[in-house]
Design brief:
The chain is an alpha/beta fold. Helices cover about 35% and strands about 30% of the residues. The protein is built from four helices and four strands. It has helices at about 30-40, 60-75, 90-95, 100-105, and strands at about 10-15, 20-25, 50-60, 80-85. α2 links the parallel β3 (about 50-60) and β4 (about 80-85). It is globular, with a radius of gyration of 13 Å. The chain starts with 7 loop residues before the first strand and ends in a 12-residue tail after the last helix.
């Protein structure tokens, strides 16, 4: 395994037509394609993809671009993609880019809903 590949690990759980992808580590340059290809391969037969970012410690601009690319690809496949359990740094990054409300499940008082 390449040194960069150890930066990000993914745990995937299928429940009906929903896939929950738990991201661990850093979504940064050098590992973004792993997330994109793994999730893209699950889109056929999936209606909803949830990226659980509880244990994501860092996301750079390429990581953000990968999440947006996944969002567009999922929508094109008739699937929804949402982010849950954002850390403050990721929440700030999404807020600065005006993507927070597009990519997260928002509940009462603007708090992300946990599944």
């Amino acid at each position: 395994m390449a040194k960069d590949a150890a930066l990000l690990t993914l745990d995937m759980e299928h429940t009906g037509e929903t896939v929950v992808v738990r991201c661990h580590g850093r979504l940064v340059a050098g590992v973004c394609d792993e997330l994109y290809h793994d999730v893209k391969n699950m889109l056929p037969g999936t209606r909803r993809v949830v990226l659980d970012l509880t244990e994501l410690t860092q996301m750079d601009s390429l990581g953000l671009g990968t999440v947006v690319r996944l969002y567009v690809t999922a929508r094109g496949s008739g699937c929804t993609l949402k982010l849950i359990n954002l850390g403050q740094r990721v929440r700030d990054l999404l807020g600065m880019t005006h993507l927070l409300h597009v990519l997260t499940e928002m509940g009462e008082h603007g708090v992300a809903v946990k599944f």
